[in-house]
Amino acid sequence: MARTTKGGAAAKRGRSAPVAGAAPADHEIADLAPVVGANLRRLRGERALSLEALAQRSGVSRAMLGQIELGQSAPTINVLWKIARALDLPFSALLAGPRAQGGPRVLPVARSKRLTSLDGTFSSRALFPLDEPRRVEFYELELRRGAVEEAEPHPPGTRENLVVTAGVVQIDVAGEHHRLAPGDAIVFEADVPHRYHNVGDADARMYLVMTYAAQVG
């Protein structure tokens, strides 16, 4: 059963030894750089935002935004969340490529793209086609043993529905700490700061369904 407690000081980000096969290959992230850069350049232009204005909104430096737009820098998942929040867009809007035709789609794990945190302890893999922004997104998340991932507030009305399939994870939302063992699930409003803390003795895996209040693009 999931257990809920209140209060308590925020834990510091943990560190853990690398696990074979857990980290994404460098080319997986680099492959996304030109896609993210083109999308960011287009979305910023549609909103008539200067790099300086977007930097102020997002908390990401003007220099970093410029490098991302040129495809010269592969942003971390934390940076992408900040940019998406500043643009008031779903995360997938920054990752979307050319729209594919309808019909069944197979997404081979060997060709999947993973985004990671700066320290490499948290990774996210999209389990949906990256061909257009969508109101509902589905992710596989991995969190190393002892690690903490601080999440930015998502656009108003965003909801997360998460299930833990391996490890033990504490989800902190609005001052409450929810401890989830394998098989436990949680649903919460994600437009406030929240975090994922691996409190078990092994790496954790979770599956996340993110639902936005309305389709935006």
Question: Top keywords for this entry?
Answer:
single chain; disordered N terminus; Jelly Rolls; five-stranded antiparallel beta sheet; 28% strand; 5 helices; six-stranded antiparallel beta sheet; 217 residues; alpha+beta
Strand proportion, as a percent range, falls in 25-35%
Report, as a whole number of angstroms, the end-to-end distance.
38 Å
Structural class: alpha+beta
The appropriate CATH architecture is Sandwich
Radius of gyration: 17 Å
Helix content: 10-25%
What's the arrangement of secondary structure elements?
Elements lengths: L2 E4 L19 H5 L2 H14 L4 H8 L3 H8 L7 H11 L26 E3 L5 E5 L9 E8 L4 E4 L7 E8 L2 E5 L2 E5 L4 E5 L4 E5 L5 E8 L6
General description of the model:
With 217 residues, this protein is of the alpha+beta class. The protein has one domain (23-98, 111-211): Jelly Rolls, CATH 2.60.120. The chain has five helices and eleven strands. The protein has helices at 26-30, 33-46, 51-58, 62-69, 77-87; strands at residues 3-6, 114-116, 122-126, 136-143, 148-151, 159-166, 169-173, 176-180, 185-189, 194-198, 204-211. The strands form two sheets. Strands 2-3-4-11-6-9 form a six-stranded antiparallel beta sheet, with no helix packed on it. Strands 1-8-7-10-5 form a five-stranded antiparallel beta sheet, with no helix packed on it. The radius of gyration is 17 Å and the shape is globular.
